Amino acid sequence: MVRHDHVTDGAASKPAWEWDVTKPEGLEGDSLAVVRAEMEAAFAAARARVARRLEGRSGGGAASVSRARAKELLRQNRERVRALLGVETSPAAQEPATELEISVADLHTVDRLLSYVRHSVVRVCFYNLKLFCPSLVDEYDEHVKAQVLLNLDQLDAARGEIAEFFDAKLSGGATVGETLPEVRERTLERVGRLSELAARNRGRLDDEQARAALAAQAPALIDEVMAGLQEVQATLDGHKVAVGELVEQAIALAAPAAAEAGLKIEPRIGAAPRVFADAGGLLNCFTELAANAVKYSGADELVVEVSSLDKGGGWVEIAFADNGRGMTAGELESALTRGASSAGTGEGLPMIVQVVEGEHLGEFEFDAKPGGGCRAAIRLPVKLELRRENKQA
Questions:
Q1: CATH class for the region spanning 105-237
Q2: I need a surface site. Which of 25, 146, 199, 269 has the fewest CB within 10 A?
Q3: CATH number of this structure's domain 2-12+60-97+240-381, picked from the four choices 3.30.420.10, 3.40.50.1010, 3.30.565.10, 3.40.50.300
Q4: Domain edges within the chain
Q5: Residue 246 contacts by C-beta under 8 Å, 6 or more apart in sequence?
Q6: Angstrom distance (rounded) from CA 20 to CA 335
Q7: Average pLDDT of 270-296?
Q8: CA angle at 157 for the pair 152 and 161, rounded to the nearest 5°
Q9: Over the stretch 354-390, which tens digit does the pLDDT of each residue have?
């Protein structure tokens, strides 16, 4: 079997879940800045990998023209898919989700930054402070005092990390806070009130009234801060897509042509988590793969399978496998090289590489052998996880 996995530049690249991330100089330990730098380094590596993979065998100028053609083809195909869906009556083929206001890469960045803030900053400081608040009234002693003071001392740092989260810039230039201005304002206002309450009472914990005031007011403010961060998470989750539904739409769109060609499409859609995605872009990829099987495979069966993968984090795989004539190694290389294919425009599979790997930080793999059919697999990360590599000099 011929296997292509990020190989058009002559050397296999690391799979997405093993991206090397070099921590920028001056950033030590764990912090919001380190998390953000790791994500930016990973995205830069992904963009470079896709650029290498899409160079094909043409020169730099020709490659630029070819990339422009691919983007225009993608735009045209998205319009075609939307037009088809607009007249489709099948329940399986409804209009895809609204276009994303921010990129999929930005959604992963915000998700990872928010995860760090909620679990590595807020939980350590806010949850522990809330936990000890009842003890300020019921069982106050030197141990309780020491623990509360420790958490109060961390408040300013936590407040700074939350502010930095909302100030983090996205790829379009806007910050997280500018994307969610009301959530930012409410959350920072509550954190500010909590800091002011702590400052007023920090040096007065031996005073019963001061302890009672802190114990009575702090928990509600902490809950409101957490509610603000949860609202950000809910907004992120609203941009996740059920991949199985998009696959059903693609199959519905391909069904008339498949029936005419004598191709049976068998969907095997298993349970899979939702993923951050541009629904229109992914639907375009799925319809392209189904159309290729109808036009060029010579197959009488196409199995489309959606499944969950567990490899270095959660992933969803969408596989299109036919039982057609397959491809020789040369035909496979041509199909994956931009502008080189003798069938169609020569942009279809490279376009999918661009959408899947460049826009969605996923993987596209295409396997074929003569007489053995073709299998195209799209893999998408559920929650992007990066593993730091410690290299020896």
A1: mainly alpha
A2: 25
A3: 3.30.565.10
A4: 2-12+60-97+240-381, 105-237
A5: 96, 279, 282, 283, 286
A6: 29
A7: 91
A8: 135
A9: 899 888 989 999 988 898 899 999 999 998 766 544 3
